[in-house]
Design brief:
two-stranded parallel ribbon; 5-stranded mixed sheet; alpha/beta
């Protein structure tokens, strides 16, 4: 079975590459030093510092593995080349919630970069999936866990 592509913006790619670099070069060295210092304290059976350092090391290695997998299957969207005639991954959209009469702006990104608190929604989320392919002026209906929502597309742009 083919692994799922992780669609990333250039910004997302850089963020993951920087984090991976930091973990491999800085954090691995720091945790190795913590383990060395804890070992020098003697008995490891009741050594909380040693256990904490080993847990941290496990977490770091798991995150490194996760980042390498994301980057291995990354497909980068060049935001400056996005067709602004319709909503697609890499663009920003301004939509109006027709029930609340409230305007919101989202950036459509791949699921690996999604962060609703920062206005970054996944193309795989209910709202993101419904918006993909829509044009300015279109109204979209989205069935979500909180009920049916209606949005009108006001703007599509790629300003960063």
């Amino acid at each position: 079975m083919e692994e799922k592509k992780n669609i990333l913006t250039y910004e997302g790619l850089r963020k993951y590459e920087d984090e991976l670099q930091e973990l491999k070069i800085v954090k691995r060295k720091e945790v190795a030093e913590k383990i060395k210092e804890a070992r020098e304290q003697g008995d490891l059976s009741e050594n909380a510092e040693y256990d904490a350092a080993k847990d941290e090391q496990r977490d770091i290695e798991a995150r490194i593995e996760e980042l390498e997998k994301i980057l291995k299957n990354a497909e980068v969207v060049v935001e400056d080349e996005v067709d602004l005639g319709k909503i697609s991954i890499g663009c920003k959209v301004k939509i109006c919630d027709l029930e609340l009469k409230e305007e919101v702006e989202y950036k459509i990104v791949g699921s690996a970069e999604a962060d609703s608190l920062k206005g970054r929604i996944s193309n795989e989320s209910p709202v993101g999936r419904a918006l993909i392919g829509c044009k300015v002026g279109e109204t979209v209906t989205v069935d979500t866990q909180v009920g049916t929502l209606k949005y009108k597309v006001l703007e599509i742009h790629n300003r960063h």
